[in-house]
Amino acid sequence: MTNIITHWRDGAIYDGTSDQWADVTNPATGKASGQVALASTGDAAHIIASAKAASQTWRETSLARRTQVLFAFRELLNSRKEELAHLITAEHGKVYSDALGEIARGQEVVEFACGISHLLKGGHTENASTGVDVHSKRDPLGVVGIISPFNFPAMVPMWFFPVAIAAGNTVVLKPSEKDPSASLWLAELWKEAGLPDGVFNVLQGDKTAVDALLQSPDVAAISFVGSTPIARYVYEEASRYGKRVQALGGAKNHMVVLPDADLDLAADAAVNAGYGSAGERCMAISVLVAVEPIADELVARIVDRTRTLLIGDGSKAATVDGKEADMGPLVTKAHRDNVASFIDSGEAAGAKVVIDGRQVQPRGEQDGFWLGPTLFDGVTPDMDIYTEEIFGPVLCVVRAKSYDEAVALINANPYGNGTAIFTNDGGAARRFEEDVEVGMIGVNVPIPVPVAYYSFGGWKRSLFGDTHAHGTEGVHFFTRAKAVTTRWINPAARPEGGLELGFPQNV
Ligand code: NAD
Protein backbone atom coordinates (compact mmCIF):
# COMPACT_ATOMS: atom_id res chain seq x y z
CA MET A 1 0.00 0.00 0.00
CA THR A 2 1.36 3.42 -0.94
CA ASN A 3 1.95 5.74 1.96
CA ILE A 4 0.42 9.14 1.22
CA ILE A 5 2.32 11.96 2.89
CA THR A 6 0.62 15.34 3.03
CA HIS A 7 0.80 18.50 5.13
CA TRP A 8 0.12 19.47 8.76
CA ARG A 9 -2.02 22.49 9.52
CA ASP A 10 -3.95 23.60 12.60
CA GLY A 11 -2.87 20.51 14.52
CA ALA A 12 -4.08 17.96 11.95
CA ILE A 13 -3.21 16.37 8.62
CA TYR A 14 -4.13 18.65 5.75
CA ASP A 15 -4.37 17.13 2.29
CA GLY A 16 -4.18 20.34 0.31
CA THR A 17 -5.55 20.75 -3.18
CA SER A 18 -2.52 20.20 -5.38
CA ASP A 19 -2.46 17.31 -7.83
CA GLN A 20 1.35 17.27 -7.90
CA TRP A 21 3.11 14.39 -6.12
CA ALA A 22 6.65 13.03 -5.86
CA ASP A 23 7.72 9.46 -5.13
CA VAL A 24 9.46 8.71 -1.86
CA THR A 25 11.76 5.68 -2.09
CA ASN A 26 13.45 3.33 0.31
CA PRO A 27 17.09 3.70 -0.80
CA ALA A 28 18.00 0.24 0.47
CA THR A 29 15.44 -1.48 -1.78
CA GLY A 30 15.10 1.06 -4.58
CA LYS A 31 11.32 0.72 -4.30
CA ALA A 32 8.82 3.56 -3.90
CA SER A 33 7.43 3.53 -0.38
CA GLY A 34 5.12 6.49 -0.64
CA GLN A 35 4.10 9.64 -2.37
CA VAL A 36 4.51 13.13 -1.00
CA ALA A 37 2.26 16.04 -1.88
CA LEU A 38 3.88 18.98 -3.61
CA ALA A 39 1.98 22.01 -2.37
CA SER A 40 0.41 24.57 -4.66
CA THR A 41 0.78 28.25 -3.87
CA GLY A 42 -2.77 28.12 -2.51
CA ASP A 43 -1.95 25.24 -0.14
CA ALA A 44 1.05 27.20 1.12
CA ALA A 45 -1.09 30.29 1.69
CA HIS A 46 -3.56 28.24 3.75
CA ILE A 47 -0.83 26.82 5.94
CA ILE A 48 0.89 30.17 6.42
CA ALA A 49 -2.49 31.68 7.36
CA SER A 50 -2.88 29.07 10.14
CA ALA A 51 0.55 29.92 11.50
CA LYS A 52 -0.33 33.59 11.40
CA ALA A 53 -3.66 33.08 13.15
CA ALA A 54 -1.93 31.19 16.00
CA SER A 55 0.85 33.72 16.33
CA GLN A 56 -0.71 36.36 18.58
CA THR A 57 -2.02 33.89 21.16
CA TRP A 58 1.23 31.93 21.26
CA ARG A 59 3.40 35.00 21.76
CA GLU A 60 1.13 36.03 24.65
CA THR A 61 1.29 32.57 26.23
CA SER A 62 3.35 32.73 29.40
CA LEU A 63 6.96 31.65 29.37
CA ALA A 64 6.10 29.13 32.08
CA ARG A 65 3.48 27.47 29.86
CA ARG A 66 5.66 27.56 26.73
CA THR A 67 8.49 25.96 28.66
CA GLN A 68 6.20 23.21 29.96
CA VAL A 69 5.33 22.28 26.37
CA LEU A 70 9.02 22.18 25.46
CA PHE A 71 9.78 19.86 28.39
CA ALA A 72 6.87 17.59 27.42
CA PHE A 73 8.11 17.48 23.82
CA ARG A 74 11.59 16.56 25.04
CA GLU A 75 10.27 13.72 27.18
CA LEU A 76 8.14 12.30 24.36
CA LEU A 77 10.97 12.56 21.86
CA ASN A 78 13.37 10.82 24.20
CA SER A 79 10.98 7.99 24.97
CA ARG A 80 9.90 7.38 21.36
CA LYS A 81 13.03 8.19 19.38
CA GLU A 82 13.30 4.63 18.02
CA GLU A 83 10.10 5.17 15.96
CA LEU A 84 11.58 8.28 14.41
CA ALA A 85 14.91 6.57 13.73
CA HIS A 86 13.11 3.82 11.78
CA LEU A 87 11.36 6.42 9.64
CA ILE A 88 14.65 8.18 8.91
CA THR A 89 16.45 4.99 7.91
CA ALA A 90 13.58 3.92 5.66
CA GLU A 91 13.57 7.14 3.64
CA HIS A 92 17.12 8.47 3.93
CA GLY A 93 19.07 5.21 4.04
CA LYS A 94 21.47 6.06 6.88
CA VAL A 95 21.99 3.20 9.31
CA TYR A 96 19.68 2.98 12.31
CA SER A 97 22.32 3.85 14.94
CA ASP A 98 23.28 6.93 12.93
CA ALA A 99 19.60 7.93 12.70
CA LEU A 100 19.44 7.69 16.51
CA GLY A 101 22.56 9.86 16.68
CA GLU A 102 20.94 12.51 14.52
CA ILE A 103 17.93 12.58 16.83
CA ALA A 104 20.17 12.89 19.89
CA ARG A 105 21.85 15.97 18.41
CA GLY A 106 18.44 17.50 17.62
CA GLN A 107 17.21 16.69 21.11
CA GLU A 108 20.12 18.70 22.51
CA VAL A 109 18.61 21.79 20.94
CA VAL A 110 15.22 21.01 22.46
CA GLU A 111 16.94 20.78 25.84
CA PHE A 112 18.69 24.08 25.19
CA ALA A 113 15.34 25.69 24.31
CA CYS A 114 13.82 24.41 27.58
CA GLY A 115 15.96 27.14 29.20
CA ILE A 116 14.46 29.87 27.05
CA SER A 117 13.27 31.89 30.06
CA HIS A 118 16.85 32.56 31.02
CA LEU A 119 17.86 33.27 27.44
CA LEU A 120 15.11 35.86 26.89
CA LYS A 121 15.96 37.87 30.00
CA GLY A 122 16.75 41.46 29.15
CA GLY A 123 18.95 43.96 30.90
CA HIS A 124 17.80 46.66 33.31
CA THR A 125 19.57 49.85 34.29
CA GLU A 126 18.19 52.01 37.04
CA ASN A 127 18.77 55.77 37.02
CA ALA A 128 20.55 55.81 33.66
CA SER A 129 19.73 59.49 33.81
CA THR A 130 18.17 61.12 36.86
CA GLY A 131 14.85 59.32 37.44
CA VAL A 132 15.15 57.53 34.10
CA ASP A 133 15.45 53.75 33.80
CA VAL A 134 16.28 51.67 30.73
CA HIS A 135 15.47 48.03 30.06
CA SER A 136 15.79 45.75 27.06
CA LYS A 137 13.59 42.91 25.91
CA ARG A 138 13.37 40.47 23.04
CA ASP A 139 10.10 39.96 21.15
CA PRO A 140 9.23 37.05 18.84
CA LEU A 141 9.12 37.76 15.11
CA GLY A 142 5.79 36.12 14.21
CA VAL A 143 5.68 33.35 11.58
CA VAL A 144 9.02 31.82 10.64
CA GLY A 145 9.76 29.46 7.74
CA ILE A 146 12.23 26.58 8.03
CA ILE A 147 13.40 24.91 4.82
CA SER A 148 15.47 21.79 5.34
CA PRO A 149 17.63 19.39 3.29
CA PHE A 150 17.34 15.63 2.86
CA ASN A 151 20.41 14.64 4.81
CA PHE A 152 19.12 15.34 8.33
CA PRO A 153 15.31 15.14 8.19
CA ALA A 154 15.00 15.43 11.99
CA MET A 155 18.13 17.14 13.27
CA VAL A 156 18.26 20.12 10.91
CA PRO A 157 14.64 21.17 11.54
CA MET A 158 15.41 20.73 15.25
CA TRP A 159 18.34 23.16 14.96
CA PHE A 160 15.67 25.82 14.54
CA PHE A 161 12.11 25.03 15.59
CA PRO A 162 12.64 24.39 19.33
CA VAL A 163 14.22 27.82 19.73
CA ALA A 164 11.73 29.54 17.40
CA ILE A 165 8.72 28.07 19.20
CA ALA A 166 10.11 28.58 22.69
CA ALA A 167 10.74 32.22 21.83
CA GLY A 168 7.06 32.68 20.94
CA ASN A 169 7.06 32.31 17.14
CA THR A 170 4.92 30.04 15.03
CA VAL A 171 6.57 27.80 12.44
CA VAL A 172 6.03 26.51 8.92
CA LEU A 173 8.49 23.70 8.18
CA LYS A 174 9.17 22.81 4.53
CA PRO A 175 11.10 19.51 4.68
CA SER A 176 12.95 17.84 1.83
CA GLU A 177 10.61 15.98 -0.50
CA LYS A 178 13.06 13.05 -0.46
CA ASP A 179 12.40 12.06 3.18
CA PRO A 180 9.30 13.94 4.34
CA SER A 181 7.81 11.53 6.93
CA ALA A 182 9.90 12.65 9.92
CA SER A 183 8.28 16.10 9.75
CA LEU A 184 4.76 14.72 10.27
CA TRP A 185 5.93 12.47 13.08
CA LEU A 186 7.41 15.51 14.82
CA ALA A 187 4.18 17.46 14.23
CA GLU A 188 2.15 14.74 15.95
CA LEU A 189 4.60 14.73 18.83
CA TRP A 190 4.13 18.47 19.31
CA LYS A 191 0.37 17.95 19.43
CA GLU A 192 0.78 15.26 22.07
CA ALA A 193 3.08 17.57 24.03
CA GLY A 194 0.28 20.12 24.24
CA LEU A 195 1.42 22.67 21.67
CA PRO A 196 -1.62 24.70 20.56
CA ASP A 197 -2.83 24.05 17.02
CA GLY A 198 -1.30 26.26 14.36
CA VAL A 199 2.00 26.87 16.17
CA PHE A 200 3.87 24.12 14.26
CA ASN A 201 2.89 23.42 10.67
CA VAL A 202 4.34 21.35 7.85
CA LEU A 203 4.26 22.36 4.20
CA GLN A 204 5.40 19.60 1.85
CA GLY A 205 6.69 20.49 -1.57
CA ASP A 206 9.34 21.74 -3.92
CA LYS A 207 10.31 25.14 -5.33
CA THR A 208 6.67 26.28 -5.46
CA ALA A 209 6.33 25.78 -1.70
CA VAL A 210 9.70 27.40 -1.02
CA ASP A 211 8.88 30.44 -3.14
CA ALA A 212 5.54 30.83 -1.39
CA LEU A 213 7.36 31.04 1.95
CA LEU A 214 10.02 33.42 0.64
CA GLN A 215 7.48 35.77 -0.88
CA SER A 216 4.69 35.74 1.71
CA PRO A 217 4.28 39.05 3.54
CA ASP A 218 3.14 37.02 6.57
CA VAL A 219 6.47 35.19 7.00
CA ALA A 220 8.99 37.24 8.95
CA ALA A 221 12.10 35.09 8.74
CA ILE A 222 13.60 32.15 6.90
CA SER A 223 16.05 29.54 8.18
CA PHE A 224 17.32 27.52 5.24
CA VAL A 225 19.78 24.63 5.02
CA GLY A 226 20.77 23.01 1.72
CA SER A 227 23.13 23.30 -1.21
CA THR A 228 25.01 26.52 -1.91
CA PRO A 229 23.22 27.56 -5.13
CA ILE A 230 19.79 27.23 -3.47
CA ALA A 231 21.05 28.84 -0.24
CA ARG A 232 22.21 31.85 -2.24
CA TYR A 233 18.87 32.02 -4.08
CA VAL A 234 16.90 31.75 -0.84
CA TYR A 235 19.03 34.42 0.80
CA GLU A 236 18.64 36.86 -2.09
CA GLU A 237 14.96 36.23 -2.72
CA ALA A 238 13.89 36.33 0.95
CA SER A 239 15.98 39.47 1.52
CA ARG A 240 14.28 41.08 -1.48
CA TYR A 241 10.98 40.45 0.29
CA GLY A 242 12.29 42.13 3.42
CA LYS A 243 12.83 39.04 5.56
CA ARG A 244 15.50 38.13 8.04
CA VAL A 245 17.40 35.18 6.53
CA GLN A 246 20.00 32.64 7.56
CA ALA A 247 20.84 30.31 4.65
CA LEU A 248 23.35 27.55 5.35
CA GLY A 249 24.93 26.07 2.23
CA GLY A 250 27.29 23.33 1.07
CA ALA A 251 30.76 22.37 2.17
CA LYS A 252 34.12 20.87 1.27
CA ASN A 253 35.68 20.06 4.60
CA HIS A 254 39.44 19.50 4.87
CA MET A 255 41.13 17.44 7.56
CA VAL A 256 44.82 18.20 7.96
CA VAL A 257 47.11 15.54 9.40
CA LEU A 258 50.49 16.82 10.59
CA PRO A 259 53.49 14.46 10.72
CA ASP A 260 53.42 14.31 14.54
CA ALA A 261 49.78 13.19 14.71
CA ASP A 262 48.63 9.88 16.14
CA LEU A 263 48.11 8.10 12.80
CA ASP A 264 45.72 5.47 14.15
CA LEU A 265 43.48 8.15 15.61
CA ALA A 266 43.68 10.11 12.34
CA ALA A 267 42.92 7.06 10.20
CA ASP A 268 39.89 6.14 12.35
CA ALA A 269 38.67 9.72 12.13
CA ALA A 270 39.12 9.96 8.37
CA VAL A 271 37.11 6.76 7.79
CA ASN A 272 34.35 7.70 10.25
CA ALA A 273 34.01 11.26 9.01
CA GLY A 274 34.51 10.46 5.34
CA TYR A 275 32.13 7.52 5.00
CA GLY A 276 29.66 7.89 7.89
CA SER A 277 26.13 8.45 6.57
CA ALA A 278 27.61 7.63 3.13
CA GLY A 279 29.35 11.00 3.12
CA GLU A 280 25.98 12.77 3.03
CA ARG A 281 26.79 15.11 5.90
CA CYS A 282 27.59 18.79 5.55
CA MET A 283 30.36 18.24 8.12
CA ALA A 284 31.72 15.11 6.43
CA ILE A 285 35.43 15.12 5.68
CA SER A 286 35.86 15.04 1.92
CA VAL A 287 39.49 16.15 1.64
CA LEU A 288 42.31 14.67 3.67
CA VAL A 289 45.44 16.84 3.57
CA ALA A 290 48.38 14.65 4.54
CA VAL A 291 51.44 16.72 5.40
CA GLU A 292 54.49 14.76 4.30
CA PRO A 293 56.21 12.48 5.05
CA ILE A 294 53.26 10.55 6.55
CA ALA A 295 50.93 10.23 3.52
CA ASP A 296 51.88 6.67 2.50
CA GLU A 297 51.52 5.36 6.03
CA LEU A 298 48.23 7.19 6.64
CA VAL A 299 46.70 6.00 3.37
CA ALA A 300 47.69 2.40 4.19
CA ARG A 301 45.96 2.62 7.57
CA ILE A 302 42.83 4.11 6.01
CA VAL A 303 42.73 1.33 3.41
CA ASP A 304 42.99 -1.36 6.12
CA ARG A 305 40.07 0.12 8.00
CA THR A 306 37.90 0.84 4.97
CA ARG A 307 38.17 -2.74 3.75
CA THR A 308 36.47 -3.93 6.95
CA LEU A 309 33.33 -1.79 6.44
CA LEU A 310 30.02 -3.52 5.87
CA ILE A 311 27.82 -1.74 3.34
CA GLY A 312 24.17 -2.63 3.40
CA ASP A 313 20.59 -2.02 4.44
CA GLY A 314 20.90 -0.04 7.67
CA SER A 315 17.46 -0.78 9.05
CA LYS A 316 17.22 -2.56 12.39
CA ALA A 317 15.39 -5.40 10.65
CA ALA A 318 18.42 -5.99 8.41
CA THR A 319 20.80 -6.52 11.34
CA VAL A 320 22.49 -9.92 11.03
CA ASP A 321 23.90 -11.69 14.10
CA GLY A 322 23.68 -8.40 15.96
CA LYS A 323 25.82 -6.67 13.33
CA GLU A 324 24.41 -3.58 11.71
CA ALA A 325 25.75 -2.30 8.40
CA ASP A 326 28.38 0.44 8.85
CA MET A 327 27.18 2.43 5.87
CA GLY A 328 23.89 2.46 4.00
CA PRO A 329 22.92 3.39 0.43
CA LEU A 330 22.77 6.88 -1.06
CA VAL A 331 19.49 8.75 -0.92
CA THR A 332 18.30 8.41 -4.54
CA LYS A 333 19.37 6.68 -7.71
CA ALA A 334 20.05 10.05 -9.36
CA HIS A 335 22.33 11.08 -6.50
CA ARG A 336 24.14 7.71 -6.49
CA ASP A 337 24.72 8.02 -10.25
CA ASN A 338 25.97 11.58 -9.86
CA VAL A 339 28.46 10.59 -7.15
CA ALA A 340 29.61 7.62 -9.27
CA SER A 341 30.19 10.00 -12.20
CA PHE A 342 32.62 11.94 -10.00
CA ILE A 343 34.58 8.75 -9.45
CA ASP A 344 34.76 8.32 -13.24
CA SER A 345 35.95 11.88 -13.72
CA GLY A 346 38.52 11.74 -10.90
CA GLU A 347 39.99 8.62 -12.43
CA ALA A 348 40.03 10.23 -15.89
CA ALA A 349 41.76 13.30 -14.45
CA GLY A 350 44.62 11.13 -13.19
CA ALA A 351 43.87 10.69 -9.48
CA LYS A 352 44.70 7.22 -8.16
CA VAL A 353 41.63 5.14 -7.24
CA VAL A 354 42.91 3.32 -4.17
CA ILE A 355 39.49 1.90 -3.22
CA ASP A 356 36.74 1.84 -5.83
CA GLY A 357 33.21 2.12 -4.47
CA ARG A 358 31.70 1.33 -7.85
CA GLN A 359 32.53 -2.30 -7.17
CA VAL A 360 30.65 -2.53 -3.91
CA GLN A 361 29.01 -5.77 -2.85
CA PRO A 362 26.31 -4.70 -0.43
CA ARG A 363 24.29 -6.72 2.01
CA GLY A 364 20.97 -5.61 0.60
CA GLU A 365 18.58 -5.74 -2.31
CA GLN A 366 20.03 -5.42 -5.77
CA ASP A 367 18.02 -2.34 -6.70
CA GLY A 368 19.20 -0.31 -3.69
CA PHE A 369 21.18 2.84 -4.41
CA TRP A 370 24.55 1.37 -3.47
CA LEU A 371 27.98 2.88 -3.78
CA GLY A 372 30.87 1.80 -1.62
CA PRO A 373 33.51 3.94 0.09
CA THR A 374 35.95 5.35 -2.43
CA LEU A 375 39.47 6.56 -1.70
CA PHE A 376 41.43 8.74 -4.10
CA ASP A 377 45.12 9.52 -3.64
CA GLY A 378 47.21 12.07 -5.51
CA VAL A 379 44.34 14.51 -5.85
CA THR A 380 45.24 18.02 -7.02
CA PRO A 381 43.21 21.24 -6.58
CA ASP A 382 42.41 21.53 -10.29
CA MET A 383 40.41 18.26 -10.38
CA ASP A 384 36.64 18.47 -10.13
CA ILE A 385 36.64 15.82 -7.38
CA TYR A 386 38.50 18.50 -5.39
CA THR A 387 36.59 21.60 -6.47
CA GLU A 388 33.02 20.24 -6.31
CA GLU A 389 30.95 19.18 -3.31
CA ILE A 390 30.35 15.48 -4.12
CA PHE A 391 28.23 14.70 -1.04
CA GLY A 392 28.94 10.98 -1.15
CA PRO A 393 31.40 8.41 0.25
CA VAL A 394 34.39 9.75 -1.67
CA LEU A 395 37.50 10.75 0.26
CA CYS A 396 40.24 12.63 -1.60
CA VAL A 397 43.82 12.60 -0.32
CA VAL A 398 45.88 15.67 -1.18
CA ARG A 399 49.57 15.54 -0.26
CA ALA A 400 51.03 18.77 1.10
CA LYS A 401 54.67 19.59 1.79
CA SER A 402 54.04 21.81 4.78
CA TYR A 403 51.55 23.16 7.30
CA ASP A 404 51.47 26.45 5.36
CA GLU A 405 50.55 24.69 2.14
CA ALA A 406 47.73 22.84 3.93
CA VAL A 407 46.30 26.04 5.39
CA ALA A 408 46.59 27.84 2.05
CA LEU A 409 44.44 25.10 0.47
CA ILE A 410 41.73 25.51 3.09
CA ASN A 411 41.68 29.28 2.82
CA ALA A 412 41.59 29.24 -1.00
CA ASN A 413 38.50 27.02 -0.92
CA PRO A 414 35.22 28.85 -1.52
CA TYR A 415 33.51 26.92 1.29
CA GLY A 416 34.19 27.42 4.99
CA ASN A 417 31.91 25.09 6.92
CA GLY A 418 34.14 22.78 8.98
CA THR A 419 37.76 21.72 9.18
CA ALA A 420 40.00 19.70 11.46
CA ILE A 421 43.63 19.31 12.35
CA PHE A 422 45.24 16.18 13.73
CA THR A 423 48.42 16.84 15.66
CA ASN A 424 50.03 16.41 19.06
CA ASP A 425 51.56 19.88 18.85
CA GLY A 426 49.43 22.30 20.87
CA GLY A 427 51.18 25.29 19.35
CA ALA A 428 50.38 24.15 15.81
CA ALA A 429 46.74 23.51 16.76
CA ARG A 430 46.45 26.95 18.30
CA ARG A 431 47.96 28.55 15.22
CA PHE A 432 45.57 26.58 12.98
CA GLU A 433 42.59 27.87 14.94
CA GLU A 434 43.74 31.41 14.19
CA ASP A 435 44.81 30.87 10.59
CA VAL A 436 41.85 29.12 8.97
CA GLU A 437 38.86 30.99 7.54
CA VAL A 438 36.30 28.41 8.58
CA GLY A 439 33.32 28.57 10.96
CA MET A 440 33.77 25.28 12.87
CA ILE A 441 37.15 23.81 13.76
CA GLY A 442 38.15 20.49 15.29
CA VAL A 443 41.42 19.67 16.99
CA ASN A 444 41.79 15.88 16.85
CA VAL A 445 38.00 15.90 16.32
CA PRO A 446 36.98 15.31 12.70
CA ILE A 447 33.35 16.48 12.72
CA PRO A 448 33.31 19.46 15.07
CA VAL A 449 29.54 20.06 15.24
CA PRO A 450 29.16 22.44 18.18
CA VAL A 451 26.95 21.43 21.10
CA ALA A 452 23.53 23.11 21.16
CA TYR A 453 24.50 25.97 23.50
CA TYR A 454 27.13 27.09 20.98
CA SER A 455 26.07 28.05 17.46
CA PHE A 456 26.39 26.07 14.24
CA GLY A 457 27.44 27.78 11.03
CA GLY A 458 30.12 28.09 8.40
CA TRP A 459 31.83 30.97 6.64
CA LYS A 460 32.06 32.02 3.00
CA ARG A 461 29.81 30.01 0.62
CA SER A 462 28.68 27.79 3.49
CA LEU A 463 26.47 30.48 5.03
CA PHE A 464 24.59 33.42 3.55
CA GLY A 465 23.54 35.82 6.29
CA ASP A 466 25.23 36.58 9.58
CA THR A 467 23.54 34.47 12.19
CA HIS A 468 24.42 30.88 12.94
CA ALA A 469 21.94 28.23 14.10
CA HIS A 470 20.96 27.51 17.74
CA GLY A 471 22.87 28.71 20.82
CA THR A 472 22.52 32.40 21.64
CA GLU A 473 22.78 33.31 17.95
CA GLY A 474 19.67 31.21 17.33
CA VAL A 475 17.81 33.02 20.08
CA HIS A 476 18.80 36.36 18.56
CA PHE A 477 17.74 35.22 15.10
CA PHE A 478 14.23 34.33 16.24
CA THR A 479 13.70 37.45 18.33
CA ARG A 480 14.20 41.16 17.92
CA ALA A 481 15.33 43.60 20.48
CA LYS A 482 13.53 46.52 22.05
CA ALA A 483 15.15 49.04 24.36
CA VAL A 484 12.70 50.89 26.61
CA THR A 485 13.56 54.16 28.32
CA THR A 486 11.19 55.00 31.19
CA ARG A 487 10.52 57.91 33.45
CA TRP A 488 7.89 57.79 36.20
CA ILE A 489 7.01 61.03 37.87
CA ASN A 490 8.17 61.15 41.47
CA PRO A 491 5.70 63.46 43.23
CA ALA A 492 8.21 64.07 45.99
CA ALA A 493 10.80 65.34 43.56
CA ARG A 494 8.75 67.87 41.59
CA PRO A 495 9.26 69.86 39.47
CA GLU A 496 9.90 67.35 36.64
CA GLY A 497 9.90 67.96 32.91
CA GLY A 498 10.15 71.55 31.69
CA LEU A 499 10.79 72.79 28.17
CA GLU A 500 14.14 71.83 26.66
CA LEU A 501 14.37 71.51 22.85
CA GLY A 502 17.99 70.34 22.72
CA PHE A 503 19.15 66.73 22.90
CA PRO A 504 18.89 65.60 26.54
CA GLN A 505 22.27 65.68 28.26
CA ASN A 506 23.43 62.90 30.54
CA VAL A 507 22.35 64.29 33.85
P1 NAD B 1 18.96 21.17 -1.78
O1 NAD B 1 19.56 22.52 -1.87
O2 NAD B 1 18.73 20.42 -3.05
O3 NAD B 1 17.53 21.24 -1.05
C1 NAD B 1 17.36 21.90 0.18
C2 NAD B 1 15.92 22.39 0.27
O4 NAD B 1 15.68 23.32 -0.79
C3 NAD B 1 14.89 21.27 0.11
O5 NAD B 1 13.83 21.50 1.01
C4 NAD B 1 14.43 21.42 -1.33
O6 NAD B 1 13.09 21.04 -1.52
C5 NAD B 1 14.58 22.90 -1.59
N1 NAD B 1 14.90 23.20 -2.99
C6 NAD B 1 15.57 22.41 -3.88
N2 NAD B 1 15.68 23.03 -5.07
C7 NAD B 1 15.08 24.24 -4.94
C8 NAD B 1 14.88 25.34 -5.83
N3 NAD B 1 15.32 25.32 -7.08
N4 NAD B 1 14.24 26.41 -5.36
C9 NAD B 1 13.80 26.47 -4.09
N5 NAD B 1 13.96 25.45 -3.21
C10 NAD B 1 14.59 24.35 -3.62
O7 NAD B 1 19.87 20.32 -0.77
P2 NAD B 1 19.78 18.78 -0.44
O8 NAD B 1 20.29 18.01 -1.61
O9 NAD B 1 18.45 18.44 0.12
O10 NAD B 1 20.83 18.68 0.77
C11 NAD B 1 22.21 18.53 0.58
C12 NAD B 1 22.92 19.84 0.64
O11 NAD B 1 22.66 20.50 1.87
C13 NAD B 1 24.43 19.71 0.56
O12 NAD B 1 24.95 20.72 -0.27
C14 NAD B 1 24.88 19.91 2.00
O13 NAD B 1 26.20 20.39 2.17
C15 NAD B 1 23.90 20.93 2.46
N6 NAD B 1 23.79 20.96 3.91
C16 NAD B 1 24.38 21.98 4.55
C17 NAD B 1 24.34 22.04 5.94
C18 NAD B 1 24.99 23.17 6.67
O14 NAD B 1 24.81 23.24 7.86
N7 NAD B 1 25.74 24.05 6.05
C19 NAD B 1 23.68 21.02 6.65
C20 NAD B 1 23.08 19.99 5.95
C21 NAD B 1 23.15 19.97 4.57
From TrEMBL:
Is Zinc found in the keyword set?
no
Output one GO MF annotation.
oxidoreductase activity
Give the superkingdom in one word: Bacteria
- Which organism does this sequence originate in? Haloechinothrix salitolerans
**One Pfam annotation, family name?**
Aldedh
By its UniProt entry, which Gene3D superfamilies does this protein fall under? Aldehyde Dehydrogenase, Chain A, domain 1, Aldehyde Dehydrogenase, Chain A, domain 2
Reported EC number(s) for this entry are 1.2.1.27
Is Ligase a UniProt keyword of this protein? no
* Name recorded for this polypeptide: methylmalonate-semialdehyde dehydrogenase (CoA acylating)
List residues of the Aldehyde dehydrogenase domain: 17-484
Among InterPro entries, the record links this protein to:
Ald_DH/histidinol_DH, Ald_DH_C, Ald_DH_CS_CYS, Ald_DH_N, Aldehyde_DH_dom, MeMal-semiAld_DH
Q: Which UniProt keywords apply?
A: NAD, Oxidoreductase
